[in-house]
Every structure is written in structure tokens, then in C-alpha cells.
Amino acid sequence: MTTLLEVTGLTTKVSGFTILNGLDLSVEEQELRVLLGPNGAGKTTLIAMITGQFKPFSGTIRFAGQDITGWAPDAIFQTGISRKFQVPNMYETLSVFDNVMVSLRGRRRVFATLFQVLRAAERDRIWDILEFVGLADKANDPADTLSHGERQWLELGMLIASDPKLLLLDEPTTGMTESDKHRTAELIHEIAKSHTVLLVEHDMHIVRQIGKRVTVLHQGQRLAEGPLAEVMSNELVRQVYLGKGKFQ
Amino acid sequence: MMLQSIMTQFLSGFSVVAILVIAAIGLAIVFGVAGVINMAHGEFIMVGAYTAAVVGKLGGNTFLAMPVAFVVVGLLGLVIERGIVQWIYDRPLETLLATWGVGIILQTVMKLIFGPELYYAGAPKILNGGFHLIGRLPFPYYRLFLIIVAVLMLGLVFFVIFKTDFGLKVRAVRRNRAISGCLGIDTARVDMMIFVFGSGLAGVAGAVLAPIKSVSTTMGFPYAVDSFMVLVLGGVGNLWGVLAGGAVIGEAETVLSFIFNNVIGQLLVFLFIVIIIRIVPRGIFGYYERR
Amino acid sequence: MVRDKAGKPAGKRRRSIRRAPLFPFWAVIGGAALVASIGAYPYYSTNIYVLTLVGKFLCYAIFALSIDLIWGFTGILSLGQAVYFGLGAYMVALSLKLNYALTHPTRFGNKIPDFMEWNSLTQVPGFMTPLYSTPVAIAAALVVPTLFALLFGAITFKRHIYGVYCAVITLAESLILQNFIIEYQAYTGGFNGITDYSNYVGPSFLWFILAVTVFFVIVARVLTHSRVGTVLKSIRDNDLRAEFMGYNVANYRIFVFCVSAFMAAAAGGMYAAWVGIISFLNVGPIFSIEGVIWTAVGGRGTLIGPVIGAFLVKGAEAFLSDRLADWWQIIVGALFILVVLVMRDGIVGTAMEWVQRRRRGSYRQILADADRAAHDLQMDWRTEGAPRSGEEVR
User: Model-level pTM?
Assistant: First the structure.
């Protein structure tokens, strides 16, 4: 298994706060890695850095052998990384179908999209994705009429459409009901069969349902890494989660 | 010789800085807290100036006009906030348009009341005359007065924001609106009060700026645009922003207008601002913007 | 635009989306009728005053259309769109004035524009001589503002300066250009503007303006109906999501801003040729914001709305402002407030909303649909005591 994503010594400071502190992390191809950690550990910041939202203070990020540190978000997308935000982010007035359509991997430049026509194969693909996430009935509805769970699924569908090599999912089940969460976990499990997924989650039920390998972050550094059972029985991890431990 | 002239312009520029700070501070606190820009800000200043003119006619002077204008324009701001602005805080661009409409109405109403002639609000006699700064530069006392007023206004806002209960709530809402609401702070009331406070400050600005030129219904717009640029350059959410923006723009405009002419000076300052915000998109002292 | 399918039974999934056609039947018919009635105007009326107004309004309509492209579809509020209109107008006006001066020399015999002579110029400045040639002037009127827009876009959009900040900067830009034009009166006619040149009022030029208007409406429709249009709308709705989905948001903004500037410049050029007077007022913030209000009143994001809005507001002004004097301004101000608080989709937007609701069916129909869908899921969505469909429903 080759290493798809490799983060080395990543450090970020925001308003004087050091959020990531020399973080090392690597994700193999076809892996489903779960990222755990208490609030403020830097999980969302790590995802933000990988996708180019901020430039790091120091450190490197390598993806598929390429150094993508400091690249712009749209360039990083082209290399094959797609990000799901914590709060569902989609195009509110566009229909569900259009939301997915506009996310399809393909031409992105202004003059390329000028006379772009939707091909039949692409159309089928969109319908397949909509059926996969269970939104085919609502294809014509504007995105702002969806329920919260459906919005999460729509964004998931948009990510699938973008055909990434690596999916960064930032707490995709926040605000969902139990049954919806279960369903989402199944979807992610299915997606992980053909993509590499880095999943940030808080809900341990979900993690237990689909997580195999787990990385725990704390105060911007990697605290522990390994199979789920092993990490959860780690004394240091327990202390950190229960609030008694300080890293080093 | 040229250098000395520039130096004297620089010193006289302090009063321009003062004018900018006085004009912008009301706008700054509303934009900083509630995130809305009041396009009628210029007209609020204008109403304050007319108030000063009326007070003058009734026998008062500028010192009296200041608190009167504060109350008058503050009440005006209350009416507008309750009637219009409170419904559109979540749509800042549209607040621009709605308050522009308010501005048009204010201008026309004032014209209907006072007629299109120019009014004059004189400075208090005690402030007439001036002294000589560095040899040949005449420095009117009134300009010195303006500098003092600017400092006092900054001080007043500082006091309110940092030393009162109300100011504490304002800062909390500024930091994190949602959590403040959860903690029991009536954020809608804070917005309203800050809008009224900002309006009142605009009124004071009008009263104090009235003696500089003549009072007319269209006098407000240039002040409004200047205030916008002060905010854009200096950044919002921070009192230093108003001072920094005002200082840079005031001095740059004075010196450059002296070297070239007024219009080129304006253009150069504008270009300068555009360059600066390319580097710091939210202004010199703006909140750290994560992009 | 995607329409809803009313009354589709749940469980039977048909893989089709209905999109509005590029040129809906009603739009083609209605548009043709409108164009015909305007075009025929010179034949059934000899009222020069109204004829002049119609030509002006068409130019205003294109101006409003250009604002709709950037504001209604891409979410960029520019309070300085008149800069491009005015630059186009001044190029054309200067050219016409220069040529006019050749055949109408001043009192002192100089073949230069009067305002140049008043400012002690004895000959036309070198950088203006290319404007003698009409093709060059037209090209300059179109290209120079577009390049200006490109420069502006590259400076601001590449740094993600948008929203309120962008609005304020465009406002300042417009004001500064206005002051520039007033100041350098030797070259621009200053406060008085450029007047007294041969302009082209007449049926053939009206048809030309009409043709250009139709052209731009079609171009705007094709653009917004295409994939680019969908991307622009997605940028308007959520530029963060668009950027992280691989779209270079800055480039798209620059693109649409340039297209819009081109349109505004064309409108300005035609306006100068038609009306015969232009001044700093056509360049400043007041005119820019007027354009925004026509777009808002008509309905932003609808293309036809701004056209209607321009005609309505300016038409009302032409007929009411004399009688109402200052009260007209109060109405205009109230219009701004109204369009933001109450009629947010504008006239055409509200009308389209109404039509769509009629298509989806009445309230009763919506309840019936919801009941059916809920029945399939074996859920009851109603709270206790709520009316069931079939009962009296308001």
C-alpha cells in the first residue's frame, strides 16, 4: 500500500495560538482512517490546511508524491482531494441535481465551461449518485428545502461526484438523528471501498461501526495511532478524553 | 524649502485626521458590532449640522449644539433602526440599499423644511482666531478644537465599550453573537442601542463640522464616503482602526493634495488604499480574517 | 431553472429533470411583440420627446441588465457600474464632438471643441486624435472600459475582496472618476459636460439600439442558462463551497465583471450618440446606484426584470417628476426601502414565484402531496388538531 497523504511537521499559528504543533500524519491508499480528538485538538484545522485554506507556518503536505503545501484550494482540488465541511455547505438556490452536476469532476476553467453540455453518461452518473444517497426523489427541489440530514447527504453526493482520490469528511453526522447517522455510516463504509477516506468523528458508535485505524490528535500533535481497540485502551488517550491528561 | 512646506502641511493635516475620525467613528462602531453599513451616515451628519445651525439661530453655540445634535440624531437613528434596519441585519448588502433610500428621503425632507439655500453655523466666538505654528502656518483655534473633540470622542467610545456594562455586552456580541444570545444577552437590543449610539455620534460630528463649511442638504455624502474609506483601510472591530485609517488617509490626502491637486490627491489615496487592502484585506487593524 | 413536477406519485422514480427551455415560448412571443411595438413607434407617432425617451430607456435597460449579471447571478454588488457606462459614453461623445468641431469652427476659427478653447487649449491633445476615426472611437468605447474592469477585477477579486468592501470601493471609484472629469475640464468639458455635437436621433438609430438591446438580452440569457451561469449562481450562493470544489472563483468573477462592463460601455456609447449630452452625472455614484434600484425593482436574477425595472422607474420619473418635484425623490427613496424589505424579488421575481406556485398547485394540493409522501413512509407529519386535506383549508 502506498502512502497517499503525508503530513510532516505541520505547524500553524492563528492569532498567536499554535493550533498545530509539528504534526506528522500519513494515510495509505484505500484506507478509511478516523481522526479523533477533543475539541480544539486541531482536526478541522488539519483538514483546512490540507485543502489549502491557510498556509502553514512550517511543515509540508505531500499528496500522491506531490508537495502541495501552500497551494490554492482550487488547485488542490484538481489533485484529487475533496472536502466536506462541518456545516453542510451547498448551493442553496440550485436544485439538488444541479448541486451534484456542478460538482462533477471535469473542466473547471471559465472558457471551458462556456459551452459545456451535460453528456448522457454524466447524467446517468448524477442519477446513480442521487440514488445512492437517497435523494433521487428530490432531484428537482432547491437545496434549501432539504432537511438537515438530507443536506449532509447532498454534500456527500457532491463529493462523490467530484471523483476524488482522497475524501476529507469533517463530522458528517453532526445534527443527525440516530437512524440517519447509521445510514450515513453505511454510506461512508460503501464509499471507502473505492476511495481513501479521512474521517473526523466524535460519535463513537459510528467509529466503532466503520473505523479500523484511528489517529488521535491532542493539542495539535499526534497522540496515538493504531487499530481502534488498541487506541481506546491507551491510558494517555483515556486521560485526555476525560480531561485529566496533559500531553507531555 | 519644499520639505518645510510638506512638514507644515503634515502638521495641518492633523486637523484633517481629526475630521475624519470624528466623521467615521459613529459608522465604525455600528459596522463593527452589527456588521451593517449605514449609507445614510452622511445624512445623519447633515442633520446634526442643521441642528447646530438651528441651535445657533436660537442663541446657542457649538458647545450646546453637540449634545442637542446627539439626542436629535440619536432619536432619528432609533426610528430608522426600529423601522427598517432591525429586519435586515442578516443581509448587509441590502442594508446598504435600504439606508441609501433613507438618505435620499432625509435629504429631500431637509430640503423641504429648510429650503435649498445654504446655512451657516458659526463657531463659538471664543474659538475664533488662531495662532501661528512653525513660523508661517496659521492654525485656527477651531482646528485645534476639532483635534480635541476627536480625542474626546475616541475616549468616550473607549469608555463606553470597555468600562461599562453595556460595553461588555457589546464586546461579547461582537465576539460571538450566538453564544452571547445563549448567555442571556439581548442581542437585538444591543444592536439597537449601538445603532442609536452611532447615530448620535454622527449627529455630534455634524454639529462640530458645521462651522467648517456651509451647511447644505448635500454636504453629507463626501463625509460618508470618507468614513467608508477610513473603515476599509483601518479595519473594523477595533478603535485603533478608526484612528489608523483616519491618520493615514488624512495625512496622505493633505500632503498629496498639496503636492499635486485635490483630485490627484484623492486618486492617489484611493490607489494606496486598494494596494494596502490587497495585503491586509480586512484593513490594518481588522479582525484576523481566515483567508 | 428547474421546475417542480406536481403530483408525482411517490415510489415511481422517473429519471428526468425538467429544465426551462433556453427561449421559452412565452418569452419569444412576448419579446417579439415588444420589439415590434417599439420598432414601429416612429411610424405611428411623431412625438420626438417620447421617441428620445424610448432610446434612452433602452440604453438604461442594457445598463440594468449588466448590473443584473454581476449582482443577480454572481452576487457582486457594484455601486460604481456607471464608470464603464460613462467611459464608453465619453469616448463616443468626444469623437463626435471632435468631428463636429471640424465642420463647425469656434468663434476664433479654431476647429477644436469649445470647452477646449475655453480652457486655452489651441489644438486637440495628441492622445485624443485617434478618436477622430469612428471605428477607433467605437473600439475604444468598448475596449477601454472592459480593460478597466479587468484591471479592477484582477486587483480586488483575486484577493477575495467582495461583499460590503467591494461595494464601498466601487462607490469610491465612481466618485473619484466623477471628480476627475469635473476637474480636468479642458479634456472632458468638466461640469458642463460635452454638448452640442451632432447626435443621431432618428428611427434608424433607434432600431440599431433596439437590435443591440435584443442582442445583449439573448447573450445574457445564453450565458446564464449555460454551465457558466450555473457556476456563477453557485458562486453567488456559496463561494466557499465552489472554491473547494475546484472552481477558481476569482476568475469567474473577473469574467462576468468584464462582460458586464462591456455591456455597460456599449450602452453608454449608444446613449452618448443618441442623446447628445453627457456629463459627469453619467459617471458618478448616483447613476450607478440608480441602475441598482432598477434591477432590484424589476427583479434581480431574472434578466427581463431589470429591463422592465428601468423602463418603469425611468418612465415614472419622466411623467411624474415634473408634477411631484421633490416628492418624487421621496418616492424613489421609499422604493429602495420597499424593494429591500417587502418586495425582495422585484416585480418579475414575484410574478414568477406566483406562476410557479400556481403550477405546483393550490395549498390543498401541496397538503395532499405531503400526505401521500408521508403515507409511504408510514409517518404522520401533522401535529394534533391540524386540518386534514379535503377539509376547509385557507
Answer: 0.89
